[in-house]
Amino acid sequence: MDNSSEFAPVYLRHDLMVEIGRLEMAMEHLVERDMTQQEQLRPRLESRMNHLQSELEHLPV
C-alpha cells in the first residue's frame, strides 16, 4: 500500500510556500542592489510570485 500519493498535495503546498518565502526575501533585498538591477529583477520576481501564488490557489485543500 503506497500512501505517498495522499501526501503529494501537502508536499507540493509546502514546496510552493517555501519558494514564495524565498521570493519575498529576494524582493526585500532588492533595495540593496543598484537601480538597473532592481529594474531588471523586480518584474521577473513579481511574475514568478504571481505564478506560484496561482499554483497554490489551485491546489486541493
SSE order: HH
From the spread of the alpha carbons, the general shape counts as elongated
Main sheet overview: none
* Rg, nearest Å: 15 Å
Average of pLDDT: 90
| Unreliable residue stretches | none
Helix content: over 70%
- Report the β-strand fraction as a percent range: under 5%
Distance between the termini: 23 Å
The tally of beta strands, per DSSP, is: 0
Query: What structural category do the secondary elements indicate?
Result: mainly alpha
Number of helices: 2
List keywords for this structure.
2 helices, 79% helix, mainly alpha, 61 residues
Summarize the SSE layout with pairings.
Blueprint: H1 4-28, H2 35-57
Helix pairs in contact: 1-2
Structure, briefly:
This protein has 61 residues and is an all-alpha fold.
Describe this structure in words.
It is a single chain. The chain contains two helices and no strands. With 61 residues, the protein is mainly α. Helix 1 runs antiparallel to helix 2. The longest helix is centred in the first third of the chain and has 25 residues. 0% of the residues are buried.
